[in-house]
Amino acid sequence: MAKQQKIRTIVFFGNHFENFFIKQTPKVRDKIIWTFDLIEELDQVPDTYLKHLEGTQGLYEIRVQTGSNIFRIFCFFDQGKLVVLANGFQKKTQKTPKSEIRKALKIKDEYYESKK
Predict the structure, then answer these.
(1) Under 8 Å between Cβ of 75 and 60
(2) Cα separation of 96 and 100, whole Å?
(3) How high is the pLDDT of residue 1?
(4) Which residues on neighbouring strands pair with residue 54, listed in sequence order?
């Protein structure tokens, strides 16, 4: 089966996401990559995989689940089609930790600052 045309492109900024990714098991890494492919290729990405984080300006979370393990990867858009990855973490409670949101917003600010 031919690979679909990409609608979006996922890029890394700094090593925030990479540091999280390399600590995961091969099974979790495979699921993260599968989710990234979905986000890049689907016109309408279901909320199950990509959702705007309420109360933030343009911060989204990529949602990955393997078994009972839930992972979140924060990201934001640049020019509509570029998905820039910020930080990732394993979700252990219902509420997303505010410290992780602050970290993602700081990364987003650094990204836009670096483009000036």
Answers:
(1) yes
(2) 7
(3) 52
(4) none
pLDDT at 2: 57
CA angle 81, 60, 13 (to 5 degrees): 65
- pLDDT of 52: 94
Q: Are 52 and 60 in contact (CB under 8 A)?
A: yes
CA atoms of 62 and 90, how far apart (whole Å): 12
5-8, Cβ contacts within 8 angstroms, sequence gap of 24 or more: 5/41, 6/40, 6/41, 7/40, 7/41, 7/42, 7/43, 7/81, 8/39, 8/40, 8/81, 8/82, 8/83
pTM of the model: 0.90
Residue 59 near residue 101, CB atoms below 8 Å:
yes
Question: What is the β-pairing status of strands 9-12 and 82-91?
Answer: parallel
| Low pLDDT (below 70) residues in the chain | 1-3
